Amino acid sequence: MTSKTTSRVGATTLLTIVVLALAWLVGFASRLFAIVRFESIIHEFDPWFNYRATHHMVQHGFYKFLNWFDERAWYPLGRIVGGTVYPGLMVTSGLIHWILDSLNFHVHIREVCVFLAPTFSGLTAIATYFLTKELWSPGAGLFAACFIAISPGYTSRSVAGSYDNEGIAIFALQFTYFLWVKSLKTGSIMWASMCALSYFYMVSAWGGYVFIINLIPLHALALIIMGRYSSRLFVSYTSFYCLATILSMQVPFVGFQPVRTSEHMPAFGVFGLLQIVALMHYARNRITRQQFMTLFVGGLTILGGLAVVVYFALVWGGYVAPFSGRFYSLWDTGYAKIHIPIIASVSEHQPTTWVSFFFDLHITAAVFPVGLWYCIKKVNDERVFSEFRLRFERQANNLFISVILYAVSAVYFAGVMVRLMLTLTPAVCVLAGIGFSYTFEKYLKDEETKERSSSTSSTAKDEKLYDKAAKNVKSRVPDCVNSNVSSPVSCVLSVRLCVVDGNSHYAFFFCVSFMFHNANEGEETGVSSNVRTIISIILVIFLLMFVVHATYVTSNAYSHPSVVLQSSTSNGDRLIMDDFREAYHWLRENTADDARVMSWWDYGYQIAGMANRTTLVDNNTWNNSHIALVGKAMSSNESAAYEIMTELDVDYILVIFGGVIGYSGDDINKFLWMVRIAQGEHPKDIREENYFTASGEYSTGAGASETMLNCLMYKMSYYRFGETRVGYNQAGGFDRTRGYVIGKTDIKLEYIEEAYTTENWLVRIYKRKKLPNRPTVKEATIPIKGKKATQVNKQDLTLTFNFNSLQGKNKKGVIRPTPTSAKA
Amino acid sequence: MRWLPTLLLVASIGIQQSFADRVLVLGETAAVKDSHSVFLNSIKERGHELTVRAADDAQLALFKHGQLIFDHLFVLAPGVQVFGGSLSPVEISKFVDAGGNVLIAAGSNIGDALREVAVEHGFEFDEAGTAVIDHHNYDQTLDAGDHTTIVVGKDQIISAELIVGNAAKLGPVLFRGVGLVSGKSNNLALNIVKASGTAFSSDPKAARAVNPSIAGSRTLLIGGLQSRNNARIVFSGSAEFFSNTFLASKTNSVNPLVQGASSGNAELASAISKWVMKESGVIRVKSVNHHKKGETVPPAEDYFITEDVVYTIEIEELKNGKWVPFQGKDVQLEFVRIDPFVRATLKNNNGRLSAAFKLPDVLGVFKFLVDYRRVGYTHLYDVQQVSVRPLWHTQYERFIRSAYPYYASSFSMMAGLVLFSIVYLYHKDTPIKGAKVLDSEKKKN
């Protein structure tokens, strides 16, 4: 018997390792589309800064990096990079680079940066496996690992070249949560310390650590409220909190935030609460019930009241910062739009559409409510059957609460912001893994002897114990409640998706939800083996479709570097538009080393990274008023803008213009945000309504307002644009992005001059002129005779004198005869 | 490297000054040599090389192979309609942009060319045939009855010694010619001599003035301009202002308040010509240095916040063809990051101007900025960009006095924990029953 068990364990281990290795491989490979199609290049915007910072660190060493004062960013304010960056990413790739270097694999740091995120996706898969294994079963863990490896919601931020914090932070998130679950399960200080260490890595890697430092206390709080306090919770939470707080304060960017901002206060509050609860538990057995009640009620009331008063006093006194705007915008989606346009202006801060849930999660979006339901059911069962409170089981159920809270909070946040889809994806993958695993277990169990195709069949040892307990439970719990709640959740979701998108794809979700409905009941009633087979096959088909969908989405939607654009010609050839790099290269080669380039903040990192020139604002949007100043310059008329630009020592101005090729992400389309941000700081000078047409539309076409037509952004975008013609019968100045002819085509620039325009006009660079050497009279009040117009303007003069000089250099002059003066 | 252009500019001025300046004087005819001989000779006496030509000379040119062949241009020919040779208003503008200095003297018979030159430099002459008329301040001796020969009092002359010399000692000035007005957007205009409030510009032959386009003290008699490249241009409405006749004669103003005296034209013309030829009011930066207090050279990398710095700038002034230390006491230094964070008046120690101050507790890219603009002086502008960075993580204090209680508490906590552990692990309750003690000791053994 022992040999048989060993071999089975051995086979299971091997299988697990193989599956995880494959998941890593597939996850890595599916993220390489961008490299295969384009080249090994850093993508988008933020990665460029991360790359630049990493490069700086590798070049100058860690301490120089930690103390790096970047005078080329946020001119003239500068930026203390070391103190305003989460260094985990740079340190990670620096470390990898160092290790490779010492092993004599000499790789450019860029390659390390490019391949970091795909590599970490494999680690994420493994961390997810462990987390799910702790929560449910190894089989579910494998499912979850496979899901997360290719789930588009996660791939979107971790393709090769997308060198961003999120790439490693999701791994850290999953791993921290796994360790938290582990420490809670064992109640050991060691696991709690490991969890704190992992949390430290998470803090050093991503600002999203706030999620986990609130999630873990939330879990602890939920356990306390549900009366599930245990010494394990006390040990693991207190050791985690103390260590984690001290460790996180070592990151310069975080600094004293863990003790001084409201975002971190819940963790502290729960820490305090836990002490009180522990004290209660200690006291309960040592004093009378009467005393206990007095102590409990009186003490808790006083302490609670005191805590609230102290908190508000600290906030009022400025010792604890109130919640930040970003935090409020998570609860009130309209908040950012009114109060902090800079946050609302970012597309990834917009609320998520239903479509993107499907797009990013596909089948897992439909299955995860089922998984969630299983978890809730487990908790419920346990509560109903409190007399069977086995210690181990009780612990396990505590864990379900953690995943439930994780999933529910992540779903909420993902609904608020597209960007936070990223935190939802791991939770969804875990729960979908549980859902699939559970279902397959149910359906393949009878055929276990015949089939051993799936590893899941052999993994549910712990599971069986629960199931037996659960079956006893079932007699008291009305079944209909269970099944009818679980299926409607997913049904509603799928119907909603169906209606919104009208895509037949979503019809599958109906099937899925019904399957699970049946599956839920199936465990009681028993289903014929044919039905089981059919359902299993269908589920496998769904899984295959998930793979196809994930690959499709990764390839088509998430693998664009956005530094290089791609389109196709009429006969289907690929057309690469490399305007961005063309322009940045021009800047690098043709401008002074200390030239200062003004652009909207989106392009700051790219200019710094690729052109190596000083920028005024960049994607690290830490100073709203500075951005507003740039916004004001862009939305003012030329002379007002000139004053601002002189103040800021601007040498070049860079705008992105997509009107020629129909690129919709250009500055004119972003312009309204510039106006809004500028208005927020300079409400007297910039008013949003001045930029609308008479009918209140935002347009640069025929009805565009005078302010719009004279603002710097319009002029720079459309300068000389009137000369272009798209087709024979098309008027000059037809804007392909917006689909109309622009309002004003004869644009004259007075204070700036065109310096460079790229091949497809995508990037236009202007130079700020110096003030004229001498003033000239533009509108003469006293007419000069011999001039046709009463107004002498410079161009007329030039024309005349060119004509004169054409007549030959050695011409004789003309002198007006002296009038005979009376006394001459 | 940022000071390189400044140095080059300084160097070019230096070279220019080391030679006798070449002046092109244009008259309506070559007779200007005689009619303005006193004025021209005074310039020659100052060591300059004069080339006198008629304004319609077909060989006129200011540039040769793209280089200036004259340093200064004096146009004492009011009636130029079209310049001869390659000369033209645009050419004159180019001359100014290339650093040449120009003096234009016009008159009532002003030609279009001069008026266009004025327009190109932010001024406007009145139309040909008009003259500045002042019925209250004309000269009884020289005037022909149309009250166009004006006597100008001291109060109408700009109070800038560098341009007009010692105005207090100046006699009344005679003027006859066309009115001038500065353009609305001309921020650089200097109203060197303006007309009195009773003056107006009109055709003296007309029966009465109808809506004169220029009137009152807005009317300029002599206007000046220092362009942004420090080239100097002076427009005088009167060529006769510089003539021998006016230079030598005595004034006899109809205004009883103005004492008759020998005219101040000679002194004023001399002062203006000195100014326009950059013999006065020329200053330059010799050297700039900034460093931490107690050091002599700028820091290798950046300054740190709240450091004490010393800024020194050496300024020189051109006097009588020699660079001597500048003695001005009102030069200010600004330490700017968009707004000035520090503004200090530099202490002048014989041409070495210095200031010592503490850097603000603000990080960023700052500029040491000396932007010295005074009427009559060339524009002195010097920028030194430096970065002010926060402290290194190793530069903070290791131990803070106010934190001693916390150090004490943490160490006492550690010690307490160790003690407690020892006590907890090894302390035995005092035995109450002998047997039990024995038991436990037996077990131990």
Automatic annotation (TrEMBL), chain A:
The keyword Ligase does not apply. Keywords: Endoplasmic reticulum, Glycoprotein, Glycosyltransferase, Magnesium, Manganese, Membrane, Metal-binding, Transferase, Transmembrane, Transmembrane helix. The chain crosses the membrane at residues 80-100, 112-130, 136-155, 167-183, 203-226, 233-253, 265-283, 295-319, 354-376, 396-414, 420-440, 534-552. Pathway: Protein modification; protein glycosylation. The keyword Ribonucleoprotein does not apply. InterPro entries: Oligo_trans_STT3, STT3-PglB_core, STT3_N. It is found in: Endoplasmic reticulum membrane. Its EC number is 2.4.99.18. GO terms for biological process: post-translational protein modification; protein N-linked glycosylation via asparagine. Its cofactor is Mn(2+); Mg(2+). GO terms for molecular function: dolichyl-diphosphooligosaccharide-protein glycotransferase activity; metal ion binding. It is an enzyme of class 2 (transferase). One of its GO terms (cellular component) is oligosaccharyltransferase complex. Pfam families: STT3, STT3-PglB_core. It is a multi-pass membrane protein. It catalyses: a di-trans,poly-cis-dolichyl diphosphooligosaccharide + L-asparaginyl-[protein] = N(4)-(oligosaccharide-(1->4)-N-acetyl-beta-D-glucosaminyl-(1->4)-N-acetyl-beta-D-glucosaminyl)-L-asparaginyl-[protein] + a di-trans,poly-cis-dolichyl diphosphate + H(+). This is dolichyl-diphosphooligosaccharide--protein glycotransferase. It comes from Caenorhabditis remanei (Caenorhabditis vulgaris).
TrEMBL record, chain B:
It is found in: Endoplasmic reticulum membrane. It is a single-pass type I membrane protein. Pfam families: OST48_MD, OST48_N. Component of the oligosaccharyltransferase (OST) complex. It comes from the Eukaryota. The keyword Disulfide bond does not apply. The keyword ATP-binding does not apply. Keywords: Endoplasmic reticulum, Membrane, Signal, Transmembrane, Transmembrane helix. It comes from Caenorhabditis remanei (Caenorhabditis vulgaris). Pathway: Protein modification; protein glycosylation. Residues 22-276 form the OST48 N-terminal domain. Residues 290-428 form the OST48 middle domain. Residues 1-20 form the signal peptide. One of its GO terms (cellular component) is oligosaccharyltransferase complex. The chain crosses the membrane at residues 404-426. GO terms for biological process: protein N-linked glycosylation via asparagine. This is Dolichyl-diphosphooligosaccharide--protein glycosyltransferase 48 kDa subunit. Belongs to the DDOST 48 kDa subunit family. Subunit of the oligosaccharyl transferase (OST) complex that catalyzes the initial transfer of a defined glycan (Glc(3)Man(9)GlcNAc(2) in eukaryotes) from the lipid carrier dolichol-pyrophosphate to an asparagine residue within an Asn-X-Ser/Thr consensus motif in nascent polypeptide chains, the first step in protein N-glycosylation. N-glycosylation occurs cotranslationally and the complex associates with the Sec61 complex at the channel-forming translocon complex that mediates protein translocation across the endoplasmic reticulum (ER).
